[in-house]
Amino acid sequence: KKAENDVVQEVIYSNSIRALSELREIENSYMEHLNNYVSFLQQKIKTLRIFINSLTPNYLDHKVDRYKYVSNPLNSFGLLRRAHQDWPKLIAYLKDQGNIKVDIEEMNKLINRTPHANDMEEALMGMDRIEHFYDLKSSDMAQGLVAGQQLSSRMSASDCLALADYMYKRSEFRRAAEWYRIALSVFTKPKNNIAFKFYAPKRKELEKMFVISRLQEGSVENLTDCLKELSQDPNNSLVHLRPRKSPTMIEQGCQGKFPPGPQLVCRYNSTTTPFMRIAPLKEEEISRDPLIWLYHDVIYDSEIAQLTNVTREEMILGTTTNYTTPDRVNRLFHIKVTDDDGGKLDKTLVNRMADISGLDVGNTTTLARINYGLGGYFQEHSDYMDIKLYPELTEEGDRLMTFLFYMTDVPVGGTTIFPGAQLAIQPKKGSALFWYNLHNNGDPNLLTRHAVCPTIVGSRWVLVKSMLNYEQMFKKPCYK
Ligand SMILES: O=C(O)CCC(=O)C(=O)O
Ligand SMILES: [Fe+2]
């Protein structure tokens, strides 16, 4: 049993908003116990003060010679009685920890749930992506101004410093310098000693790191310039001392810079399957190559509530290893996959997908619910595997098509991007995107490679299902 408890399953809070909400619960819990702890101590101190103030001169007058004092029988008797009766009680009272024992124990348990270093790293990566992908000004971001939206919070000097150090470590010296300078500008000498002693940044250190970062990027000849920069308003961005990298296709897409798509049709579809004659669908054609449709209002709020009502323990960490990305292993999001045991709702949904697509969804109801995290990002990948590279797929065929239900609105960021086709689709709660990954002859359609832009604001939930090629043999129409 002990051994079981010792194995602490590693949680990465940063990779889903679901898990981050749990971390907030932990913080609230810390606060509650700390408050209890302090109230208890305060009460005790009050009681002890009253006690001290109420003491008679007998206790207090140390100046009287002690021999003289005890020569008086009344003093001697009082002394003996006090030493025998009162002091032990007082000591017992001092030792009594009341309920704070519980508070301390509880706080100790919470410490076991502290995010680890790689969770911190994930959070930093998320913040880095939000800034970098959307080409935000660091000073705007620090003030909660992201992609035209004013958030209700600001970053503290410590937050800015953590980000600065992260950029510095990654040799992003210009951005590091920006963040050191912002940290300085929001830095105020902490009012309380604990902060000063344990975690507040030091002004001198920030100034030093600013200069070092600037020199790392430029050269020593820049020293006077860079000291001048240090005193300037951090709202004026630092000049680039090295050539700027131009934004990638994905970054351009995330910044909304893809050209507007052709005006394709938007209609009520009532013909794909008999079901749709009685329940026509709002169907929007997004693209003809690759074939992509967007359907509106195809998953209901009550269903979404049920699907997203999962505990963090039920979800696992999704990484790039399960996808065809060129990257090293990356943490993507938290995911819950249900197979055939998914229950009634899963069957309903899979049947609905069959009705919408006119395809045979096969015997399995494998569905994935995904919740993205802080700056959550899914790099470019394909949903097809390419059967020529993975011959083991011959049993079921490659992933012919993908169904992607958006279960939440994402107020800022979180666009699904097809860089090859220059398409960007913003999640809308209740909508579903549906596309073919393969050409008619079964070859992969490279234009279906896609990515998900970093989420800036919101909790991004999607439901994903792929349908396999060979199950569609008798169903799938050949599109031109
Ligand atoms: O979240 C999205 O928009 C896309 C998810 C995705 O690409 C996948 O699960 O393969
Ligand atoms: Fe995908």
Could you please describe the fold and organization of this structure?
The protein has about 475 residues and is α+β, with helices and mostly antiparallel strands. It has three domains: about 15-110; about 135-230, no CATH class; about 255-470, Jelly Rolls (Sandwich). It is built from 17 helices and 17 strands. It has helices spanning about 1-5, 15-55, 55-60, 65-70, 75-95, 100-110, 115-135, 140, 155-170, 175-185, 195-200, 205-215, 225-230, 250-255, 275-280, 300-310, 345-355, and strands at about 145, 150, 265-270, 280-285, 290-295, 315-320, 330-340, 365-370, 380, 400-405, 410-415, 415-420, 425, 430-435, 450, 455, 460-470. Strands 3-4-5-14-10-17-8-7-6 form a nine-stranded antiparallel sheet. Strands 9-15-12-13 form a four-stranded antiparallel sheet. Strands 1-2 form a two-stranded antiparallel ribbon. A hairpin with a 4-residue loop joins strand 4 and strand 5 (about 290-295). Helix 2 (about 15-55) runs antiparallel to helix 6 (about 100-110), helix 9 (about 155-170) runs antiparallel to helix 10 (about 175-185) and helix 10 packs antiparallel against helix 12. Fe (ii) ion binds near residues 381, 383 and 450. Keywords: Dioxygenase, Endoplasmic reticulum, Glycoprotein, Iron, Metal-binding, Oxidoreductase, Signal, Vitamin C. Pfam families: 2OG-FeII_Oxy_3, P4Ha_N. GO terms for molecular function: iron ion binding; L-ascorbic acid binding; procollagen-proline 4-dioxygenase activity. Catalyzes the post-translational formation of 4-hydroxyproline in -Xaa-Pro-Gly- sequences in collagens and other proteins.
